[in-house]
Structure formats: C-alpha cells, structure tokens
DNA sequence: AGTCTTTTTTAACATTTGTAAAAGGAATCT
DNA sequence: AGATTCCTTTTACAAATGTTAAAAAAGACT
C-alpha cells in the first residue's frame, strides 16, 4: 500500500483509534488495486477473501437471478465493500464485484486480517464495530424495501446519493431497487 | 440466572469456546425473565439495553408503520433476540419485543456485556461471531424479500419453521412477509 | 458523419397485491 | 350457553408492477 493511502485510516478512525503498531500491521496486509471501468474486481463463484476500501471510483456487487443481472449494492469513495455472506461463512459467493468507473481500491486480505485479531484486540474491535454498523444499515434497508413503494425508495436513494444518477446506468438502479427498468422509467416520467 | 440455564452456554459454544471464568462473568450479568403470553418484554421507544436468549416460548419484534402493527422478526427457543438498530447506536428503538406464548428468557445486560469485552477478548469474539452470523442472515433475507414472490416466501417460511403456523397468528405472518392478511389468505387458498 | 451497440422510454396487456367491507370461525369470558 | 371479541376468509374493485415488444435516445467506434 502506498504512502498517501491515509484515507483508509481516516475511515477507520471513525470507529476505533488504532496505535501505530496496529496500523503498521494492517498496512502490511493491504495492497493497491487499480481496475478500469466495467471490469470485475472479484468474479462470481469464488470465496470472498478480500475486503476492499474504495479510494477512488465506484463499484457494485451483483449476481444473476433467473439470468438477470441484479445489483445488490453500490460502494462509493471512502467506503468498504465485501461479500459478507461468503466472507463470514467461507461459502463461495454467488456475487461478484464490478467497477462502474475507473477505480482504485485498497484490498485487505481477510485471512491475514482474521489472524491479526489474535495479536491486536483493537483490530478485532475495529472490524467488529464496522460490521455492526453495516448490519444496522442492512436491518434498516429491509424496512425500506418491505414498506416503502418503489417510488419512495427511488426518491430516498437519489436524496441520499445525488450523484448516483450521474454515475450509474438506470438499469442497475432499477435492479437495486428491486423493480424493472420499465417500472423505474414510469416512476421517473412523473417528474 | 438459575443453574439449569446451560442452554445459553450450549448455544454460545457453537460460536466460541469460553473458559469457566468468562462463563462465570457472563452469568453474573444475566437474569431470568418470565413473561406471560401477549405481553411486552420490551416496549417501543426505549433504548435497547438487553439481549435476550429465548429459553422457552416464542416472541416477535414489532413496530407500527402508518398505524399498522408490523412484525419484523420471530425468535424461537434457543435463539437470541435484540433490537440491534438501537443496541449498536444507542438510539431509542421504534420496535418492541412481545411474547406470543408464555415464555422464559435469559436477559443479558448489554452495557455490562460491552464492559466485559475489555476484560475478556473471548467474550468480545463470541458476540462478534454471533452478530456476524445474524448479519449474514439479514443480507440473505433482503434477497428473499426483493426477488421472491410473497407466495415463494410463504412456502419457504413454513418449510423452515413448520410449527410457526401452529404457534403464530396469520396476521403476524402476513406482516412479517410484507403483505396484507388478505393477500396471505389468497395464497393459502390455493392449496 | 455514419454505423453499431447499448440504454432508456413508451405502449398495451397481464398479473399481483392492496383496500374496504362483509361474513364466517374460533377463542375467551362471564 | 350466550355474548363478546379477535382472527381469518371472501368478494369486488383499484392501484402498482411485471412482461413483451417496439421506438427513441445516447454512447462508442471506425
């Protein structure tokens, strides 16, 4: 990992302060990854062994459902992305990670990270807090999916991520919202 | 906590072995709670400060959406229940926990538990793993909600929890599935 | 500029689910 | 047993979303 990647530790510091030795240990299991637009960062079918921090660019997790490409999530600059249903179980993931722009990531080896947990309780604590926060987001998303109309979810999405529309094809936004492109077009036509 | 409550530590042992001192420390922050059928174990509007283990009986988390009672989740014997969106944030929960049968719980004080994390890294690790598994379940549930029809979700639910139908009013099952009672009735009428 | 491909919108029709009201059943209480 | 309340189903109609196909718009490539 190169020296100007402090954005990662800035991100971590929201959750847990780390002493220099712990930061050093994490740095050693990180690597910089550059991926052009519309390429797979991680293909479907492999066990997730890397947690990515998005330094620049934008990506999505996706999978195929009845032959259709479904976007599960988007990840913007300064956020982490991983396929936790594989990361925490060791089961090969049915999901892939694909860039939507030319992007730069910091990849953190998860087996190496989990080994650091024994040596540095503060690192275990850091990632515990990170995933607890992600868990809370997921719980809240269920409520949003189940009890808001597609139109409400669309409005919420663009309110929370205004540049999504500029940066992501509508077809991915539609599948993320759980509706068809046609249905999204109808919603958009109202305004 | 009384002496025959080893079901809790049996449950924990799936995730993480604990040495006797750690078990002892957890025991000290637990208490037995008996609640009759159809009562609130935890009311809506309070910050979640207790994680419950269901020793006997059955309960649900619920909240009100536009005046309607919505069931977010069910918890059977030998499982944990908490309102994580409050537990991990300190924000008062919009959700309550209600019994559906006469039930017995072990309540674990979460502030006391979080204090134990400093003293016993193995306890922090135990709950890290517990909530990681719960997080994975939640991620998988999103896929189920978004890309299966209500009919598929109903069939999955009764396949995975066959006694749910015997133990829970259909109105709660309907709201859990994200549909109306009428719609659930229509689905059931097909068989 | 022109061609090719991909993305987005529009249209017509089918299906699913919601809403409101009523009726039928089941459980509870005295 | 009778009354009351709650739960579940049924019916009729409305609204939202899906499906399929075609047209329009935008982007990519020579």
TrEMBL record, chains A, B:
Protein name as it appears in the record: cAMP-binding protein
What organism is this sequence from? Indibacter alkaliphilus (strain CCUG 57479 / KCTC 22604 / LW1)
Top-rank taxon of the source lineage equals: Bacteria
Kindly give the InterPro entries that the UniProt entry links to this protein.
cNMP-bd_dom_sf, RmlC-like_jellyroll
């Amino acid at each position: 990992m190169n020296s100007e990647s402090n954005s990662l530790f800035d991100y971590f510091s929201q959750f847990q302060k780390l002493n220099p030795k712990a930061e050093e240990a994490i740095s050693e299991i990180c690597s910089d990854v550059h991926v052009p637009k519309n390429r797979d960062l991680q293909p479907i079918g492999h066990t997730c062994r890397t947690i990515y921090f998005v330094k620049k660019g934008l990506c999505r997790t996706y999978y195929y459902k009845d032959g259709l490409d479904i976007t599960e999530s988007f990840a913007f600059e300064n956020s982490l992305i991983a396929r936790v249903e594989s990361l925490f179980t060791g089961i090969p993931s049915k999901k892939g990670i694909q860039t939507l722009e030319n992007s730069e990531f910091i990849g953190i080896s998860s087996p190496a990270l989990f080994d650091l947990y024994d040596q540095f309780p503060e690192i275990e604590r850091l990632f515990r807090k990170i995933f607890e926060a992600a868990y809370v987001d997921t719980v809240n998303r269920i409520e949003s999916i189940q009890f808001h109309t597609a139109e409400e979810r669309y409005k919420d999405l663009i309110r929370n991520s205004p540049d999504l529309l500029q940066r992501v094809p509508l077809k991915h936004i539609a599948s993320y919202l759980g509706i068809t492109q046609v249905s999204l077009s109808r919603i958009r036509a109202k305004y």
